[in-house]
Amino acid sequence: MNVVVLVGNLATDPELRHTANGRAVCTFRLAVSRVGGEEADFVTVVTWERQAEVCAEYLATGRRIAVEGRLHHSTWEVEDGRRSKVEVVAHRVEMLGKPRSSAPDLGSAAEAPDSAEVAELALA
Known about the structure:
It contains two helices and six strands. By secondary structure, it is an alpha+beta fold. It has a single domain, classed as CATH 2.40.50.140. The chain is 15% helix and 48% strand.
């Protein structure tokens, strides 16, 4: 089973691009605190189609979100060897906490979740 659930803050603004055939793809980095909160891991998240457009429009650096998706590992050859990367392909992105002042009020999605809501996200 390949399921990933992360809660963290955006470390970069989302970057929206389009593939050669016109599909929207958005990438951003998510900072996820480790237990104790002293250190963080930075994870690249990829979203597609309408979700990519929504993320690009409403998310910004510092925004707290929850992401549910799957790990995707890719490798490729370059002149000096082999490169690889691991990223999360998001199936679901949920905005948490208060939005930045420049972002619109998103109603109930803008309220911080309690632990039961985060657990529910993991089971969805």
